[in-house]
Amino acid sequence: MLYSKLFGKTSKTVSADEESINAQYLIRGGFIHKQMAGVYNYLPLGLRVLTKIQNIIREEMNAVGANEILMPSLTQEESYKTTGRDNMEILFRTEGPSGAKYVLNPTHEEIVTPLVQKNVFSYQDLPLSVFQIQNKYRNEPRAKSGILRGREFNMKDLYSFHTDETNLDEYYEIMKKVYHKVYERLGLGKITLLTYASGGAFSRYSHEFQTLCDVGEDTIFVCEKCNIGINKEIIGEQTSCPECGNVDLVEKKGIEVGNIFKLRTRFSDAFGFKYLNAQGVEQAVEMGCYGMGPSRIMGTLVEVFHDDNGIIWPESIAPFQYHLIVLGKEDETFEAAQKIYNSMTAAGKEVLFDDRREVSAGAKFADSDLLGIPTRLIVSKKTLVQNAVESKLRATGQVEMLDLTKLL
Fold first, then answer.
1. What are phi and psi of 377, to 5 degrees?
2. 224 located within any domain
């Protein structure tokens, strides 16, 4: 990608309303553009990051045999009346022709349950899991913290269907491991903890995945023996570690980057979703729900991986792997840089080439730090005399000279 052709450029300032680091750096870096409170446009750089996060999640869901589908954002209000959730304050509502009432889905239990019901008849059709990666809509009263809390946001939601509670429990444990693997690939593995939370109307406990971060909205109490957390909302009833009984818990802040629930028969009962067991007897279908927000993860990564100069993207989800910068205005230097760019892209490398001639070296370096691409490659008269390119790692600041012949 040529920087001169890139839609969305860096800026030195951002609105004073944007207090969160992720909003400041993502807007200044040209990754996102704020449409209104809680709603953002994803520009090319931001979309590349979001897509990479989505693809890592998608690969891990596919690896455990989940079927990817895509459900509508809009559905009839009647579905929410069926489950008794039509009074949720977060629902965005609208009307169609002849006064028909619709809802913009904040989640998809009301859609996926009757959908799967049409394709499951006996125990031989179960277990089954389906997932999607799609935008959700919630009328959040406090749309703040950049893309950490939005009114429109991107989400992966997976739903599993089972013959009995034992089978649900087994799959639930599998998904815990899958989630940990996703966070490991995203660079968040060491600081993202399985956290016990309230199960609400579904069960005694649900589980969240909390990334430790000083600006997190959630307070969790961490058992450092088991490396798990307990959300403050349940600490009154759970004053020790649920895993080992340890009472020496450490208070920390976290950002919720995923949650999983055992829905049991809450929604299958509402829709009369049953199956025939081996004896031909009708049984209620057991369900689980597993949510993970790619856009929220993107914001979390910025909150965790940054310095005073900008973002420091993990390699697995960076918009580009290399940021190629030319110093000077000489034609020979630009021609050499163009040759490097052509060679690297032909070899399948992801390169952002800053081909601007009228921009100072200082401004290019500042933009490079802000964008946070893992490796900066510098081409100049000085490096070409040495038949080399200067390489600098964004995360560590390590600098070395790379032989140009080998690089090409």
1. -115, 125
2. no
Q: Within a domain: residue 247?
A: no
Q: How many domains does the chain have?
A: 2
186 within 8 A of 56, measured Cβ to Cβ? yes
390-408 confidence digits (pLDDT tens):
999 999 999 999 998 888 7
Q: Which domain holds residue 51?
A: 3-211+255-307
Helix, strand, coil abundance in the chain, percent, nearest 5: 35, 30, 35
Structure tokens given for 31: 């990754």
Place of tokens 């088991």: 226
Taking the CB of residue 39, how many other CB atoms lie within 10 A of it?
A: 14
Give the distance between the most distant pair of CA atoms in the chain: 82
Order of strands, edge to edge, in the sheet holding 351-354? 351-354, 322-326, 375-379, 388-393, 399-403
Span 161-208, pLDDT tens digits: 999 999 999 999 999 999 999 999 999 999 999 999 987 666 678 999
SS3 38: coil
Distance CA 380, CA 332 (A): 10
Q: Which helix (H) or strand (E) holds 102?
A: strand 101-104
Q: Which amino acid would we find at residue 323?
A: H
Q: pTM higher than 0.85 for the full model?
A: yes
Alpha-carbon distance of 120 to 275, in angstroms, equals 7
* Same domain, residue pair 130 and 49: yes
DSSP strand pairing (351-354 vs 322-326):
parallel
- Clarify whether residues 266 and 341 are in a common domain: no
CATH number at residue 336: 3.40.50.800
Least confident of 118-127, 139-148, 257-266, 356-365: 139-148
* 283 and 385 housed in the same domain: no
